[in-house]
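User: Hello! My lab partner asked me to get a predicted holo structure for this protein. The small molecule is NAP, SMILES included with the sequence. Please write out the structure tokens.
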Amino acid sequence: MKIVVIGGTGLIGSKVVQKLGAHGQQAVAASPDSGVNTVTGEGLAEVLKGASVVVDVSNAPSWEDAAVLKFFETSTRNLLTNEATAAVGHHVALSVVGTDRLSESGYFRAKIAQEKLIKESSIPYSIVHATQFFEFLKGLADISLDGDKVHLPPVLFQPMAADDVASGVARIAVGPPVNGIVEIGGPEQFRVDELVRRRLASLKDPREVIADPQARYSGAELGERTLLPGNNGRLGETRFEDWLKSPASQPPKAKLPSAAAATATKRG
Ligand SMILES: NC(=O)c1ccc[n+]([C@@H]2O[C@H](COP(=O)([O-])OP(=O)(O)OC[C@H]3O[C@@H](n4cnc5c(N)ncnc54)[C@H](OP(=O)(O)O)[C@@H]3O)[C@@H](O)[C@H]2O)c1
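Assistant: Hello! Below are the structure tokens for the protein in complex with NAP.
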């Protein structure tokens, strides 16, 4: 089966491509680097020829309110139109547990708009709602800075390893469309401030994390259980302490410009 993975070079996308390939599927990674741009439409018609499934695990380059809304609306419209022409039978998109409860946030308004377009289209679909990735805990600190301190609400969440997210997405991509939402999450619950504090300590990041009930998550106020999946959520296996000991917890190496990369390789 030909499965096109939009955002196939990203954190989740590269793992989805690898997992689908290992299970004998023809997984094609599509992103601007490979000449496929869902915002401009470049390369879309060509890459979708003969595809049975499209997995959209792309993300916007800018999370500013207007920019992120424009990205997800334009990209999703272009995708769905081209999928209809190519007779694609299943559109799978990755979104976030609790998205519908987070409309105070510009980022989540964009994800709500993305999901609405998918639900209203003629293409059979599955929307995967995942909880926060362990790999995103430092990013969560970065977007929650107030002065030099990280302010986070001490509410519950159930984060998961990116590898388990990719397994969940790949499994759904090879199954029948559910025409609804499937929730996936991690095996353990934590307080948001507590886990971000532990992650920063593991990175020897000196920033202090303050438990602040007034603090917002990406601009949205959170209740005790806003970020938790419901009872039918499918749970990944990787526990936080095991992930911390694994290579996946190492910070990604900074991308080098190609000339510098060539020099670095020559130097060994
Ligand atoms: N962070 C979390 O905790 C969390 C939780 C649940 C769900 N999610 C969702 O997971 C999804 C994937 O996140 P991620 O962290 O894996 O993303 P990521 O690593 O930032 O990767 C984003 C991908 O999108 C591609 N892309 C950007 N602009 C594009 C365009 N115009 N056309 C085609 N592809 C484009 C990028 O290509 P280049 O590399 O070429 O730029 C890259 O492959 C997001 O939709 C997010 O909402 C995130």
